[in-house]
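Methods — Computational structure assignment.
A single polypeptide chain was analysed. Its primary sequence is given first, followed by the predicted tertiary structure written as structure tokens.
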Amino acid sequence: MLSFIGQWRRVSLIKTLIVSLSSVILITSSSAVSVQDSGDSPITQKETKTSSDQKRRNAFLADPTIFYDQGRYYLYGTGNLRAFTGNPQEGFITYYSEDLKEWSGPAGAEEGFVFCKGDGFGKGLFWAPQVFRWKDHYWFAYAADEYIALAHSDSPLGPFTMDPPQKLPSATRQIDPFFFFDEGKIYFYYVKLDKGNRIFVAEMKDDLSGIKPETEHFCIHAGDEGSLWENTNNADWSVAEGPTVIRREDKYYLFYSCNDFRSKDYAVGYAVSDSPLGPWKRYEGNPIISRHNVGHHGSGHGDIFITPEGKMYYVLHTHFSKEKVQIRRTALVEMRAEEKEGEETVFSILPETFRFIEVPAEKTAPAENLGK
């Protein structure tokens, strides 16, 4: 430690420099606060163009889904929001983009959130949302407290609410909702937490109040039929989750993820059926998305969407790094569908199109909070 005894002139000079420097820092800090804490509403943010030199970071949303509506793509997912924003609120946020490259947000109607704890069912464990439009409303399906619930709104930005708050009736814990509309019927896919994470499907009642119990069918249990990629650790509690269903011609394709999400072998495969209710036949080339073709551990649990131009994408999450699972990173990869007359469609990805989604970073917590 320096001693300043007998050096009063030097002390005076240093004090002068410190005061001057403090004034500069104060002015700069005040400007930063006025920008970051401006209190702009989500609507104002929505109309603001992100500058090309704005600092950006990876989106940290697991179990992601992208919903397209009126020229915009909306990204939702599971997020440990406190870790990367410092916001203690629990719920779901959204980002939006018009080109899948430049993303803005968080843009939800409730200070970035589309759904906050208290807007509907659930005290915690808010996971794996899906958004769809039905009967002039936007619907938000999600898991909370290891049950599934619905909320609705007049906008993809929310707020999504349900009064009174209630879960869908179920005697068994369940997660990962996916609603599929086909020929006037509503099919509900979900994961039962019973002897493993197992995928089921049932027809929904017309008012979305619950399933028609007599229509419930089992779909996928990881490791069945000798599918070794689905349970690489040979765990007693095997995992099949994150269902997404699409239709091509007269065939139905169920995409799902297997292995514990903390495993580096978390991956995506699909199965095909002649009916939304199954039975399902696995594609022999599974998995179609894994660490082996995208280069990142824990690649899975996402959703399929198709652009107005007809391009098909899968949005997914990966581990933070090869060493750390959390916080999971959101990515996008283009899919390919090879169709031959009279045969099943064969799906794959274009690995060279894989990229992480980047969002504005001005609301990010210190870097030491990431990757934990």
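Note: The first strand starts at residue 56 and ends at 58.
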